[in-house]
Write a structure and sequence with these properties.
The protein is of the alpha/beta class. The chain has a domain of 200 residues: 3-Layer(aba) Sandwich (Rossmann fold), CATH 3.40.50.720. Helices cover 40% and strands 17% of the residues. It is built from twelve helices and 13 strands. The strands form four sheets. The protein has a seven-stranded parallel sheet with strand order 3-2-1-4-5-7-11, with helices on both faces. It has a two-stranded parallel ribbon with strand order 6-13. Strand 1, helix 1 and strand 2 form a beta-alpha-beta unit. Helix 1 crosses helix 8, helix 3 packs across helix 5 and helix 9 packs parallel to helix 12. The chain starts with a strand and ends with a helix.
């Protein structure tokens, strides 16, 4: 039985786990929160405490695939310290390691297109940490002979984490800047891209997993609101002082992200190529 180990088990890891469990895989997942670990067990996932070196060693000992989804902190990616020594200790190297990064590594491109060969120009602290974590994982891959791939992700949405949830909670605020667009990805398309990479691993691979149509966030919110017949607050300009500093930083970037390489190398195609198909599917499923 092939095994997947997810370090930083969350929204993305759960989506990949559902796909692989359905194909006969065993899934181990590391999460710090005991309540989260209990929920994972109910989903058929073997829950692991990331603070336990022995538990990590057991999880990686027979893992065919390792997904690193934990965000980096001031000291870098936590999986480097927790997992890599246990890989060396057990001597059982995974066939595939996937590191979840962000399209924030590209910074602001004033609406222009970027691809995996584009210069990295992260403008945020999170983006800079992801650039460093990608570099560290590439070095580990080269040094230990591991097949490591990085996946640069935009905003992830899906059932339980969609514009519908924000609209119903009264937390949706349309924000706009002339000409500004964002890429996004449905969580099931993200999982499908990861699964395709597991089937076709390439050392030092880097892939943008994004949808086909970058779009303004206010347009997406308005479309979601129309689908459920809900009102939205008035649109706010991205420079409005009433916005939080975090929001203003978010809306300071503007780029279009290409997914052509993932399509060409992995044979991946998003089932939800735009936000319209993705939102309709969530709503049809009761989301």
């Amino acid at each position: 039985m092939p095994r997947l180990f997810v370090f930083g088990y969350g929204f993305a890891g759960a989506a990949l786990s559902r796909r692989l469990i359905g194909e006969g895989w065993e899934v181990f997942g590391a999460a710090r929160d005991p309540a989260r670990r209990a929920a994972m067990a109910a989903e058929g996932v073997v829950a692991v405490d990331p603070a336990s070196p022995d538990a990590i060693a057991d999880a990686v000992a027979q893992a065919r695939a390792l997904l690193v989804a934990a965000p980096p902190g001031p000291n870098g990616c936590p999986a480097l310290e927790a997992v890599v020594p246990q890989i060396a200790r057990t001597g059982a190297f995974p066939d595939w390691i996937g590191y979840l990064s962000t399209t924030g590594v590209y910074g602001d491109r004033r609406g222009g297109w970027v691809n995996e060969r584009s210069r990295l120009a992260a403008a945020s602290l999170e983006g800079a940490r992801r650039v460093a974590a990608e570099r560290d994982w590439r070095q580990v891959g080269r040094g230990m002979g591991l097949t490591v791939a990085a996946f640069r992700l935009p905003g992830i949405y899906g059932p339980g984490r969609s514009p519908f949830d924000r609209i119903r909670a009264g937390a949706a605020q349309p924000v706009t800047r002339p000409g500004q667009v964002f890429s996004r990805i449905h969580v099931d398309d993200l999982a499908a891209g990861l699964q395709a990479s597991i089937a076709h691993p390439r050392a030092a691979g880097v892939y943008n997993l994004v949808d086909d149509e970058p779009a303004p966030s206010a347009t997406v919110l308005a479309y979601a609101a129309a689908l459920i017949g809900a009102p939205l607050p008035p649109v706010v300009d991205a420079d409005d002082p009433s916005l939080s500093e975090a929001s203003r930083r978010f809306y300071a970037e503007n780029k279009r992200v290409s997914n052509a390489l993932a399509k060409a190398e992995l044979g991946w195609r998003p089932a939800y190529p735009t936000y319209r198909e993705g939102l309709k599917a969530i709503l049809a499923a009761g989301g």
